[in-house]
Amino acid sequence: MAMLAELTHRCPLACPYCSNPVDLVRRSGELSTQEWVDVFRQAADLGVLHLHLSGGEPAARHDLEELVAASTGAELYSNLITSGVGLTEARLEKLAANGLDHVQLSLQGVDHETADLYGGYKGGFDRKIAVAGWTVKLGLPLTINAVMHRHNLSTLDLMIDLAVDLGARRLEVATVQFHGWAEKNKAALMPTREQVQKAGETVHAGRRRLKGVLVIDYVPADYYATYPKACMGGWASTSLNIAPDGQVLPCHAAPTIPWLTFDNVHERPLKDIWMHSDAFNAFRGDEWMQEPCRSCARKAVDFGGCRCQAMALAGDAAATDPACSKSTLHADLLAAAEAASSTRDADLTYRRMPTLKQPLRTHDA
Amino acid sequence: MTTEIPETARPRLLKGVRTRFDKARDTWLLLAPERTLELDAVAAAILAEVDGERSFGEVIDVLMAKYDAPRERISADVRTFLSSLVERRMLEIDVP
Ligand code: SF4
Ligand code: SF4
C-alpha cells in the first residue's frame, strides 16, 4: 500500500500538464510539520509501506529534511518526487543521511529548450542534471520521470539514452493524462495515434536492450486503446493521497467528481477515513458499476477504468470509462482525440497560482 | 535468463532496496523504488545471508548448513533468484 503526500502545491515550475487541481492550496493552508509527522505514523499503522513525498515541489517545504526523518522513524519507504529545483547538494546529503530511500526526478525534455519551455522555468534543465549527479553520487536510486506528449514523444529514444547516461536505475515514461491543468492543454499536447504506437515499440526495444541496466515503466496513453487503463489497483484498494491542507483523497483527481465529499486529517483519524468515509467507499468493489462493466469479465482487471475520466467525459463518475471500446461514447472520444492531435500551434496554459502571465505558443513542425 | 555468477563474487542489495518484515501480512517484503516483492520462504532465507560481505559460494554454504538440500539445488535456486534481482536493478554482484 502506498500514500502520496502532497506536501505543498507551491512549485517554481509551471508545467502545462500538472496534475494538481486548478484550485491550488496556498501556503497558509498547508499542514504543519507536526501534523505531517502524525499523518505518517497513522499511515504506517494502516499498513502503508511506500510514502511518496510530492507536491507541487516538496523541496519548497523548509522542513523536508525533518519530514524525511519522520518517515524513516515510521519505517516507511520514502520516495522524493521532485522537479529538482530547490535542492542543493548539501540538502540532498542531509536527506540521504535522514534515510531518504529513493529520488524521482522529472524531466520535461532532453535538452534546455524543450525542458525549459515545458517546465516554464529558465535554467531548470541544468539544475535537474546536477540533481541527478548528486543523487547517483550518494548511491541513492534515481528514477527519471518523463512526461511525454505530442511535442516530445519523438525524442523518447533520446530520453532513454539520457536516463542511462545520468545513471538512473529506472525510467518512468508517462504519456500525459488530461486531468488537472492538462485538460486545458489538450489541443496543444494530444499525441497522434502513430506517435503512441511508435512509443510502445521504442519502450519495448529499450527494455530488451537495457535489461539489468535500466528498468523502464511505461504508462501508455489510453485514448487510442481498446480497453481503459486499470485505475491503480482499484479505487481505494492500494493507495491514498493527502492534499497539502490535509484532505484525504482516494486519488489525486477525485475532487473533479463534484458530489464526493472528503474528510480531513484534522477532523478524523486516517484509518477511519480509509475504512468508512463516503469518498473511499464510493467506488470500492464492483457494486457501483453499470453495464457494460457490471457483466464484463475484465472488471477485475481494469475496474471499469478511470472514475475521473468517466466523470469528465461521460458526466457520470460511475459510467464505463469512455476510453473503453465497449462504451457508447468511445467513438466520440476517439474522434476528439484525433481532432485535438491535429491542432496546429495551440496556446499553452501554464500552471499558475492565480496571477496569470502571458501564454506561450507551441509550434507544430 | 541466469547469468554466470562465480563462487567468489559478492552479491549485495543496492542502496534503496531493503527487506522488511511486515507484521500485518505476516511476511518478509523486499522494498525497492516503486516495487514491493513479497518474499517466499526460500527468497527470504537467501536474502538473510546476502550482506554484501559474503561471497556467492559462502551464501550457498551457509544455506546448506541450515537446510537439508544438495549443493547443486541450492546453488541453482540462489543463482536464479539473485539474477532476477540483478535484472530488476535491485542487486549488484561485485566480481573480484
Ligand atoms: S480514478 Fe482515474 S485518476 Fe483516479 S486513480 Fe483511478 S485511474 Fe487514476
Ligand atoms: S466494459 Fe468496463 S470492465 Fe469491461 S473492459 Fe470496458 S471498462 Fe473494463
Mean pLDDT of chain B, to the nearest integer, reads: 92
How is the biggest beta sheet of chain B arranged? 3 strands, antiparallel
Average residue pLDDT of chain A: 87
Give the quaternary arrangement of the chains: heterodimer
The CATH architecture assignment of chain B turns out to be Orthogonal Bundle
Low-confidence stretches of chain B: none
Q: What is the gyration radius of chain A calculated from CA atoms?
A: 20 Å
Overall, the morphology of chain A is: globular
Structural class designation of chain B: alpha+beta
- Class based on secondary structure composition and strand pairing of chain A: alpha/beta
Cα separation of the termini of chain B: 22 Å
How would you sum up this structure, described in words?
The complex is a heterodimer of chains A (365) and B (96). Chain A is built from 13 helices and eleven strands. Chain A has 365 residues and is α/β, with parallel strands linked by helices. In chain A, the strands form two sheets. In chain A, strands 7-6-5-4-3-2-1-8-9 form a nine-stranded mixed β-sheet, covered by helices on one side. In chain A, strands 10-11 form a two-stranded antiparallel sheet. In chain A, helix 1 (33-46) packs parallel to helix 2. Chain B has one domain: Coenzyme PQQ synthesis protein D (PqqD) (Arc Repressor Mutant, subunit A), CATH 1.10.10.1150. Helix content of chain B is 39%, strand content 25%. Chain B has three helices and five strands, in the order E-E-E-E-H-H-H-E. In chain B, helix 2 (56-66) packs across helix 3. In chain B, 24% of the residues are buried. The interface between A and B is medium-sized, with 22 and 20 residues. Bound molecules: iron/sulfur cluster (2 copies). One iron/sulfur cluster (SF4) binds next to helix 11 of chain A.
